[in-house]
Amino acid sequence: MSKGPNTWLARLTGYIVPDPSNHVQLFLVGIAGFFIVRSIIAALTRKGPERFSMDSVRNQPVPAKRNFTPRELSEFDGKDDSTPVYMSVKGIVYDVSASRHFYGPSGPYKNFAGRDASRGLAFNNFDTSVLSDLDGPVDKLEDLDKSEWASLDEWATFFAGKYPPVGNLVEPPALESKEESKEKSKEESKKDQ
Ligand code: HEM
């Protein structure tokens, strides 16, 4: 194997390291070097929206999770285009705005918009008669049978996988205190026995 100027190593270094006697080659390598160094400096010192910074991550609005009474939830029924569409499944309120074609006023499932849809999903029935009263207690679904629970659970998994949760469905405060006092009096009467 020859170690002369024609070895592969000599040819490779010939491409990278300019021949000092070849002025054109020196000039071209100089220009290329200038642009490479300039773009590295520009990338390191660049300011502006295209440069990643932790601040841009920290400043993202975090969707606030909140509690909705059935009446409050009903404001998100999709009738107002500028308001998101929410519906509740098993106590979790989901933002279903991405599917206004389903839940908007002319969609097939409009009755679920702004409502606790749990019982409707358990019964596979979107009629309003199945849904609970807006000013009544939150539906505890205690009377559902096994297959109705299975249906509801399947829907709950579907909604959890498709839509962002925005909060929880809660008892209206007046009813909550009534429920609490009911519970207390139940406990007290048990103690008395
Ligand atoms: C005539 C009977 C029905 C037909 C032909 C039908 C058809 C459909 C179709 C084609 C979809 C879209 C599926 C997809 O995006 O992959 C859908 C979704 C859905 N259906 Fe029905 N459906 C019927 C009855 C019902 C009933 C009785 C309920 C009541 C619970 C219901 C609740 C839903 C819901 C909640 C969705 C999901 C919408 C979403 O993606 O958010 N459907 N249905």
Automatic annotation (TrEMBL):
Residues 176-193 have a biased composition (Basic and acidic residues). It comes from Coemansia guatemalensis. The keyword Ligase does not apply. One of its GO terms (cellular component) is membrane. Belongs to the cytochrome b5 family. MAPR subfamily. The keyword Cell inner membrane does not apply. Residues 163-193 are annotated as: Disordered. The chain crosses the membrane at residues 24-44. GO terms for molecular function: heme binding. InterPro entries: Cyt_B5-like_heme/steroid-bd (IPR001199), Cyt_B5-like_heme/steroid_sf (IPR036400), MAPR/NEUFC/NENF-like (IPR050577). The gene is DAP1_1. Residues 68-170 form the Cytochrome b5 heme-binding domain. This is Dihydrodipicolinate synthase. SUPFAM superfamilies: Cytochrome b5-like heme/steroid binding domain (SSF55856). Keywords: Membrane, Transmembrane, Transmembrane helix.
